[in-house]
Amino acid sequence: MFFWLSQFSADISVLNIFRYVTFRTGGAIITAFAIAVFFGPRFIRWLKSKQADGQPIRADGPQTHLAKKGTPTMGGLLLLVAIVVSSLLWAQWRNGYVWMLLFVLGGFGLAGFWDDYLKLTRRTSAGIPGKVKLGLQLAVSLVACSWIMYLTQGAGGTAATQAMSTSITIPFFKDLVLNLGYFYIPFVLVVMVGSSNAVNLTDGLDGLVSIPVITTTLVFMVIAYAVGRVDFAGYLQLYRVVGADELAVICGAMIGGTLGFLWYNAHPAQVFMGDTGSLALGGALGALSVATKQELVLAIAGGIFVMEALSDIIQVGSYKWRRKRVFLMAPIHHHFEKLGWSETTIVVRFWIVSIMLAIFALGTLKIR
After folding, report:
1. pLDDT in tens, 196-235
2. In degrees to the nearest 10, what's the CA dihedral of 40, 42, 45, 49?
3. Which of 11, 12, 260, 298 has a beta carbon 3.0–4.6 Å from 289's, enabling a disulfide?
4. How many domains does the chain contain in total?
5. How far apart, in whole angstroms, are the C-alpha atoms of residue 158 and residue 213?
6. Structural domain that includes position 78
């Protein structure tokens, strides 16, 4: 919305500042943060009035989690509202990538909301049946994938852009591009659904998921801005994605909104994000990596999410085939709880790792 103020810059020169993605990204960060922090207390009180017993606590989980009983969930609603409102205020509405990413946030968010709602109404830690949830995630991802491919090709796309729409770039190599052809769509579905579920698995301790989401989003905010500009893309030897720089504004809203949510989710949490927020943020990160043609960088920047997901897969696979557990409990943050680490220690150390991974991921832009 504010972008349109730049149309009057001929008469009021100061309004020209709204043309700049960097300025609007900063505005999106501050706006989303302010919305989350300002409305947080009233929103939490409202959730408590609707959720008498709060989020159901796993009976087989760490005993320390029993103290969390009564904490409301679905805090992701506040987070998503902050992101969407801030994005609509600061992003350029004519940009297709903006609406694609908002669609992903909304689609995965609705799936998560349904899951949270069933958990609350049934008073169980089991929500939507796994196959139904997976089907919803795949449907949203398929639409997003088709949308991104269309935007990548552009109107009347050339043979080169059509080939790039089904290709992925390889970190550390400037000219290595792999065209997956018909396998590209299944690959994207795995990236988006996998990212969504990995972030969801990470959201198991107070504040744990927020900083990894912020650091990973920050990486893709920089990447989106770089690949959307012909000068930066050329200097860094990245494939240019016309219009992708506007995604930096949405990234800014995601960072600000998540920071604002962390204000109330830090230990001891006043509210939980729930699947409403974690599935949406994870799906958005997957979509960002696909839109910027940096899918493999997501595995580096979001290494915490990869570690959490792999620990769960390994645990389930090992018990199914060997009747033995590799970890004391999965995902892996619960393993460290069982080892006697305090919740705060685990969270802060995971934050430190996520920051280092983000720095390494940004380094891949230059090391080519």
Report:
1. 999 999 998 999 999 999 999 999 999 999 999 999 988 8
2. -130
3. 298
4. 1
5. 35
6. 2-296
